[in-house]
């Protein structure tokens, strides 16, 4: 075996173990008995200790020094293994294991605090998470000249920086705020009314998942507090949630997570259980979930199909006809929860979190002051007060599991989706005919070919640029799409 062969064999075993660790996390969110939380934290810590030891083994460095890539994919494998190795050796093993144990425990505390609207219950463990993440960031930033936040951001969107994201947000905010104010100033379309059987919601969500290309022979749909996708290759699982008076919560959460899952399922099988065999970044991942959910799932054409499907299952929806249904699906409305936000206001939620978590990492904001800071910023940005912690600072699992630097990738995903949608529509001028029949296949096939099958073969922005015929990612396609869509919906 060559050094490259040995390196790839070692990497495949490490990737397989990482998938096992991921399955423990999936189980914790879906099926694990509450009383098992303490033991699960120890299990997660033990798994992370094993993984960290493998990722930092000196043999990896020796093989990297000797390995010669046999082809383009091999060069990408070496690039990603080298990047992960150089990051991993900066983080002490005991810190990595401590973070895994702590975040597993913190996740359970967060769920309890959210259910009881008790930030005081969550604050102590969140303070511990912030402290350990700052220690990790210090280790990762050492010798790079990067900020602590940039060091963490690099885990989710390699090559991005907080300064670049701040500049992007500064360009987007004025037009998004103006569009929101225009939409909220006029007459509002009706919302759906009534109670919608939650078993029927799950049945329809399963049908929609398959229509969007999710292979349930290699996946499954369960319920969780916060919807998510987990796994890669031949075992990719998603979760959704149901609310009796809000079926869109379930249906569009499912379509969103299916976008993530289809990305992982569509990656070239030759790359499975290798660094290239997973989504290249969270921003690109979010581009898939957001384009499935919004540009496809909330399009006028697909909404016409969905309207009839829901009428058949639930009877009267409280809206009169497919056009009114389309307006209800895309209604710009006051709300607190990012995952329930309309397309116009979604990115404003991300901007709020981006600023708060940067302040936490910089030490400019303490956890005991986080709830007040959140509430003040929300009132300033959205014009009304947060009514309870579960709708504010406690609404998301991300900080409990240490995902600092993750939130900006949601906005990057929207930006990338805007670019991809422009290119997709140019290549598929008759797409609406298929969507009106409930068939997103032409679009999801285009995305599988242009984006998903490559996995980590190319750098994140290169993936988008290649898919868009050489056009580099830019905010203009997204902003134009939003202004055209919602300008027409709220034309007065």
From TrEMBL:
Query: Which keywords accompany this UniProt record?
Result: Carboxypeptidase, Hydrolase, Metal-binding, Metalloprotease, Protease, Zinc
- Catalytic residues (UniProt): 257
PROSITE patterns, per this entry?
PEPTIDASE_M32
Enzyme Commission (EC) number = 3.4.17.19
Q: Which domain of life is it from?
A: Bacteria
Q: How is the cofactor bound?
A: Binds 1 zinc ion per subunit.
Cofactor dependence: Zn(2+)
Q: Which InterPro entries match?
A: Peptidase_M32_Taq
Reactions catalysed, semicolon-separated, are:
Release of a C-terminal amino acid with broad specificity, except for -Pro
Q: Where is the signal peptide?
A: none
GO biological processes: proteolysis
Q: Which GO terms describe its molecular function?
A: metal ion binding; metallocarboxypeptidase activity
Q: Which Gene3D superfamilies does the entry mention?
A: 1.10.1370.30
Positions bound to Zn(2+):
256, 260, 286
Q: Which family does it belong to?
A: Belongs to the peptidase M32 family.
Q: What does this protein do?
A: Broad specificity carboxypetidase that releases amino acids sequentially from the C-terminus, including neutral, aromatic, polar and basic residues.
UniProt cross-references to PANTHER family, sorted A to Z: CARBOXYPEPTIDASE 1, METAL-DEPENDENT CARBOXYPEPTIDASE
Q: What is this protein called?
A: Metal-dependent carboxypeptidase
What is the native source organism of this protein?
Answer: Roseovarius gahaiensis
Q: What is the lineage of its organism?
A: Bacteria, Pseudomonadati, Pseudomonadota, Alphaproteobacteria, Rhodobacterales
């Amino acid at each position: 075996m060559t050094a490259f062969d040995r390196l790839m064999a070692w990497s495949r075993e490490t990737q397989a173990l990482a998938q096992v660790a991921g399955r423990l996390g999936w189980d914790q969110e879906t099926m694990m008995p509450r009383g098992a939380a303490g033991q699960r934290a120890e299990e997660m810590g033990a798994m992370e200790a094993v993984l960290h030891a493998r990722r930092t083994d000196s043999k990896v460095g020796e093989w990297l020094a000797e390995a010669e890539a046999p082809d383009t994919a091999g060069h990408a494998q070496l690039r990603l293994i080298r990047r992960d190795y150089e990051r991993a050796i900066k983080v002490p093993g005991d810190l990595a294991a401590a973070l895994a144990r702590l975040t597993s425990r913190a996740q359970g505390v967060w769920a309890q605090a959210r259910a009881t609207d008790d930030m005081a219950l969550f604050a102590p463990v969140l303070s511990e998470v912030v402290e350990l993440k700052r220690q990790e960031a210090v280790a990762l930033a050492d010798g790079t000249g990067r900020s602590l936040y940039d060091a963490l951001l690099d885990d989710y969107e390699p090559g991005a920086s907080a300064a670049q994201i701040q500049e992007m947000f500064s360009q987007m905010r004025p037009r998004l705020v103006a569009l929101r104010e225009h939409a909220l100033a006029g007459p509002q379309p009706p919302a759906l009314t009534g109670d919608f059987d939650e078993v029927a919601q799950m049945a329809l969500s399963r049908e929609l998942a398959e229509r969007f290309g999710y292979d349930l022979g290699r996946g499954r749909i369960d319920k969780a507090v916060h919807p998510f996708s987990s796994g890669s290759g031949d075992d990719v699982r998603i979760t959704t949630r149901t609310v009796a008076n809000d079926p869109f919560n379930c249906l569009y959460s499912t379509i969103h997570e299916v976008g993530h899952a289809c990305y992982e399922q569509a990656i070239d099988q030759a790359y499975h259980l290798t660094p290239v065999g997973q989504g290249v970044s969270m921003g690109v991942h979010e581009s898939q979930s957001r384009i499935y959910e919004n540009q496809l799932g909330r399009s006028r054409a697909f909404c016409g199909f969905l309207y009839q499907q829901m009428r058949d299952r639930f009877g009267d929806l409280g809206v009169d006809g497919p056009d009114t249904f389309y307006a209800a699906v895309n209604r710009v409305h006051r709300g607190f929860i990012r995952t329930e936000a309309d397309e116009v206001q979604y990115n404003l939620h991300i901007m709020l979190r981006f600023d708060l978590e940067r302040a936490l990492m910089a030490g400019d904001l303490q956890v005991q002051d986080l709830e007040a800071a959140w509430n003040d910023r929300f009132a300033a940005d959205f014009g009304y007060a947060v009514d309870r912690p579960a709708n504010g600072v406690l609404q998301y699992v991300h900080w409990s599991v240490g995902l600092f630097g993750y939130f900006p990738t949601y906005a990057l995903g929207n930006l990338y989706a805007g670019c991809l949608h422009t290119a997709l529509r140019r290549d598929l001028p008759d797409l609406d005919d298929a969507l009106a029949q409930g068939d997103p296949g032409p679009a999801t096939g285009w995305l599988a070919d242009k984006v998903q099958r490559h996995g980590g073969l190319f750098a994140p922005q290169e993936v988008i640029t290649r898919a868009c015929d050489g056009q580099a990612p830019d905010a203009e396609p997204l902003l134009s799409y939003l202004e055209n869509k919602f300008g027409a919906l709220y034309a007065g």
